[in-house]
Amino acid sequence: MNFKNIQLGIAPINWTNDDMPELGGENTFEQCVSEMALAGFTGCEVGNKFPKDPDVLKKALHLRGLQICNQWNSYELTTRPLDENIRTFKKLIDFLETMGSKVIGGGETGNSCQGQWDVPIFEGKGHLKSDLEWKRFASGLNTLGSLARERGIKLAFHHHMGTCIQTIQETDRLLEETDPELVFLNYDCGHFYFAGEDPVAALQKYIHRTAHIHLKDIRQGVLNKVHQERWSFLKAVKNGVFTVPGDPDGCIDFEGIFTIIRNSNYSGWIVLEAEQDPATANPLEYAIMARNFFKSHTGI
Fold this sequence. Notes:
It is a single chain. By secondary structure, this protein is α/β, with parallel strands linked by helices. It has one domain (6-298): Divalent-metal-dependent TIM barrel enzymes (TIM Barrel, Alpha-Beta Barrel), CATH 3.20.20. 41% of the residues lie in helices and 13% in strands. It is built from eleven helices and ten strands. The strands form two sheets. Strands 3-2-1-10-7-6-5-4 form an eight-stranded parallel β-sheet. It has a two-stranded antiparallel sheet with strand order 8-9. Helix 7 (199-206) packs parallel to helix 10. It is globular, with a radius of gyration of 18 Å. The chain starts with 5 loop residues before the first strand and ends with a helix. Residues 36-287 form the Xylose isomerase-like TIM barrel domain. Pfam families: AP_endonuc_2 (PF01261). InterPro entries: IolE/MocC, IolE/XylAMocC-like, Xyl_isomerase-like_sf, Xyl_isomerase-like_TIM-brl. This is Inosose dehydratase.
């Protein structure tokens, strides 16, 4: 296969950060989606400044040749009852179905330290501490995945720094204990590398279960400081641990990643992203950088 079954999107977090709204606070929704289109993308995920009214959002996106491909859902299966998770999940499914999206993403935030400025990312991450906790967690995801499937949408769970699903070992168990027809993976090479894993080996292992792909790069020098100075996730982001594919400061083997995708049956969206401080990493400039890099390596 080649990349003919792939659609290319970009994340609005490059323009305005959801966890730290002061990053990119000056950037409007209109600027964000206009620059996405200008850079050559056809899809995007949902940001905190996007209109909540589907008709308003659809019109703005249609004018720019964009569509919604996914939205983050904050699962809180470790800290809130399942019925509360179901209510918030159904509301988001309603919205995504209206927008024509086939994927709902997100990760477990209930016991995560990802949004805490002063908690070291590696020491403070969430954990599932017993077989019973794992069983409840997996059962909850299966329930939500079944609700999504009934609406023609795939639950693509995002392994994420600071959460209970951060490492290869944790991702393995997540996928082993959930139904492969109900729970899929939102693969993210940047988060696997950040976690100390080989993102190429991870994609090779999980490509058959992957329903959505995020591609970002890592600045190794910043990651070294995260370890040395025990930074939180937010501090790492603000100081530029992430960057877009195509940035010469990055260190991930994208050739290996592209080869796996090219030789797989994956079809769907690839979203290029890198939550950075827009004041130091101009979003349009980096979006164009990433778009040109992807086209030069894949032809699309």
